[in-house]
Specification:
Radius of gyration: 20 Å
Order of helices and strands: EHHEEHH
Structural class: alpha+beta
Number of strands: 3
Distance between the termini: 39 Å
CATH superfamily of the largest domain: YefM-like domain
Number of helices: 4
Largest sheet: 3 strands, mixed
Shape: elongated
Strand order of the largest sheet: 1-2-3
């Protein structure tokens, strides 16, 4: 894990980003207190699907799990069509 002050991170931004991209966790401090963490984003994130959402809903709020996975997938597809 690499630790930089805000000023060090600003002056060495390319190096800080390179460290995060290589998988190292970078912590940014302000007056010695950690205030931010920079992490690498996985290159192949899982697609957001109705199945994943339905599983999360069932796990966190069984009372709200009345929609089927297919209905959730359909609603997501419609919503994503509005993004364009």
């Amino acid at each position: 894990m690499a630790i930089y002050s805000v000023l060090e991170a600003k002056n060495n931004f390319s190096r800080v980003v390179s460290q995060a991209v290589s998988g190292d966790t970078v912590v940014i401090t302000k007056r010695g207190t950690p205030v931010a963490k920079l992490l690498r984003i996985p290159s192949d994130p899982k697609p957001f699907t109705g199945s994943a959402l339905a599983a999360w809903i069932r796990q966190t709020s069984p009372a709200r799990s009345s929609l089927s996975t297919e209905e959730i997938d359909q609603r997501i597809a419609v919503a994503q069509g509005d993004w364009d």
